Amino acid sequence: MTTAPDRTTTPLWDAPVADGPLDATVEVPGSKSLTNRLLVLAALAEGEGTLRGALRSRDADLMIGALRSLGATITEGGEPSTLHVTPGPVTGDVDLDCGLAGTVMRFLPPVAALADGDVRFDGDPAARVRPMLPVLAGLRSLGVRVVGDGPDFPTHLPFTVRGRGRVAGGAVDVDASESSQFVSALLLAAARFERPLVLRHIGATLPSLPHIAMTVATLRDVGVEVDDSRDGIWQVTPGPIAARDVRVEPDLSNAAPFLAAALVAGGTVRVPGWPAQTTQPGAMVPDLLEQMGATATVEGDVLTVTGTGQVRGVDVDLHAGGELAPTFAVLAALADSPSRLRGIAHLRGHETDRLAALATEITRLGGRCEETRDGLVITPRPLHGAVFRTYADHRMATSAALLGLRVPGLQVEDVATTAKTLPGFDTMWLRMLGRTPEDQG
Ligand SMILES: O=C(O)C1=C[C@@H](OP(=O)(O)O)[C@@H](O)[C@H](O)C1
Ligand SMILES: C=C(OP(=O)(O)O)C(=O)O
């Protein structure tokens, strides 16, 4: 079972070259990470909830589809970005399509454990290599049965969670060094377990701490008691999940390539709706862009980034915001000095092995980009046009567009893969440049 788009027939997209400084305001849709957490919590809540400004994209729609299969009623309000969620008993004997969405394949097995029957999980071919064991083994140690296609305990998709209508809860050790989503997944459903969940991270490193903070904050917002006072340990107390009417922040990680464009092309890009306080790792973007030569200011809720076209190399640890790395890797390839991106070994388990993909594609354009144990070293060199492969990875495609602002003849494979989190990216990108798809021919 898979709904993976057919990539063999997708035409190449000619990335537009910037012909002058930018002066653009870009409205970015809702955060994927917030939308999919809020949907899960709304589906487990005590009454009808509403999400406003929710993301509608492949990942969000896969989450909506899966939660409907599991018994929730989710309807659109006046506009598609308003969603009304009515929880129902969690139902089993269903098949769930996770696509390539980490938030669906990791967040839903603990929800499925609450179902009254088997819940079968599968996804895109590329999803079948993404790490799953820590969350499945965590469920097993909480007494939940999980089976794979063969006799062995499953380590990847596809697998089946044998829901029994209840999860006991208790203490569980999880190695989340490959993905913070293993922690978030178990915490999100834990208010519905019978006893407190005490989750201890046992790995050497823990990426994406802001995303775990986001999970804790969204749980507290719906009245769930979470104790995160000890490093690497989280305790969730069982209790009711309140139904809420919430507004979703714009996706700050999806804003990153647009804001970075001001640095590459020169000029100014503004993003309205920039939150004063947020748990999104995209909060790091203004500071990172400043380190690379931009100026960034927030007035009211508008973030304004201005650049001269000159990009400075950096040495940065992106452990907390790995999903930003593709944007900053290609910025580094356009800089006037070498860069090092550290703390991102876990990107090897993202939509694709992003370290290998970035090194291969930047090298294909004539650049120099080498993998290290936990990141990339990028030495700028003159770049030339070529087909930039995207490996079903939305952030490879948006990063290719960023490079294309300065590299004539760059063609992006499967720009439609951006629909994972940002449908219509190509049109938004052209609009930022003051162009339309018709201008592109
Ligand atoms: O919980 C989330 O919403 C996410 C957590 C992060 O995953 P990793 O910790 O696997 O990097 C991030 O990269 C991903 O895009 C979204
Ligand atoms: C890693 C990402 O996605 P996912 O939620 O599928 O893990 C990402 O969006 O960069």
TrEMBL record:
Coiled coil regions in record: none
Pfam families in UniProt: EPSP_synthase (PF00275)
Domain Enolpyruvate transferase as annotated: residue spans: 20-426
Catalytic activity entry: 3-phosphoshikimate + phosphoenolpyruvate = 5-O-(1-carboxyvinyl)-3-phosphoshikimate + phosphate
Keyword set includes Transferase: yes
Catalytic residues, chain numbering: 323
Main location: cytoplasm
Family membership: Belongs to the EPSP synthase family.
Protein name: 3-phosphoshikimate 1-carboxyvinyltransferase
Organism: Isoptericola halotolerans
Gene that this sequence comes from: aroA
